[in-house]
Amino acid sequence: GVGMNLQDHLEVYVQQRCLQPVTLYGLLRPDRTLSAGLQWLLRFTGPCATAHMDTGGFARSEPSVAHPDVQFHFLPAQVIDHGRVDPTMEAFQAHVGSLRPTSVGWLKLRSANPTDPPVIQPNYLST
């Protein structure tokens, strides 16, 4: 039925403070944001010319797995609440997640009111 068989890729994020100014944190300054935007707009270069998730890899969780089932990726920035909160410091972030989760969840309407949030049961670790 509608809302059943919800599957998602659960990830773990690890953040590490960086003591050198080599991450994307400096781009939060308005002058640097403008400069980066102009670099991309005029020459398609600079920090806006990449998604910044271009470092990563795949691995098998155990030798008996036929194909990689774990993904790693790295970001030269701190991401808080899916980007809704500005970072507070120079930091790196590493992600690791399952590629083929078997857990199944569901979502349902809370009420007939379309402004009410749904009820979500992801069951991330049920299998």
UniProtKB/TrEMBL annotation:
Signal peptide: none annotated. InterPro entries: GMC_OxRdtase (IPR012132). GO terms for cellular component: mitochondrial inner membrane. GO terms for molecular function: choline dehydrogenase activity; flavin adenine dinucleotide binding. Gene3D superfamilies: Glucose Oxidase, domain 3 (3.30.560.10). This is Glucose-methanol-choline oxidoreductase N-terminal domain-containing protein. It comes from Petromyzon marinus (Sea lamprey).
